[in-house]
Amino acid sequence: MKLKQISVFLENRKGRLSKAMNVLSNAGVNIRALSIADTSEFGILRMIVQNPDLAEKKLAENNFVVKVNEVIAVEVLDEPGGLDEILGLLNKSDINVEYLYAFVEKKTNKAIVVIRTEDLDSGIKVLENGGISLLSADDVDHL
């Protein structure tokens, strides 16, 4: 199962992140997970949101550079070695992980990991064959 991820390119200057959050807030878009990677000149804000199409539209209308791509979300035991199992399966199948980020769901003993691989379909197949629980967009929305 693939999820839509919103990536927003932000100039590394005061107020840009706040402005992006304000746009999403005013549009009623709830953020389920996010990650920010930055350099001295710009940052990339990556998010899983409940309404990615609306988020993309509103951010673009407010002059943000936005890209939508697909990622995988999996449940991982929230204990030592949980992530190692997932990465081991992908590594054994020679699937490169471009990046990942995680958040913890407090209602269970699981963490949610968002993964971007070079080949999503192969990544999904390997994880499913390894007995890993993949999440749909609806699953993530209702955590």
Polypeptide structure, described:
By secondary structure, this protein is α+β, with helices and mostly antiparallel strands. It has 2 domains: 3-70, 2-Layer Sandwich (VC0802-like); 71-141, VC0802-like, CATH 3.30.2130.10. The chain is 34% helix and 38% strand. It contains 5 helices and 6 strands; from the N terminus they run E-H-E-E-H-E-H-E-E-H-H. The chain has a 6-stranded antiparallel β-sheet. The longest helix is centred in the first third of the chain and has 12 residues, at 16-27. The protein is globular. It starts with a strand and ends with a helix.
Short key terms for the protein model shown above:
alpha+beta, six-stranded antiparallel beta sheet, 2 domains, VC0802-like, 143 residues
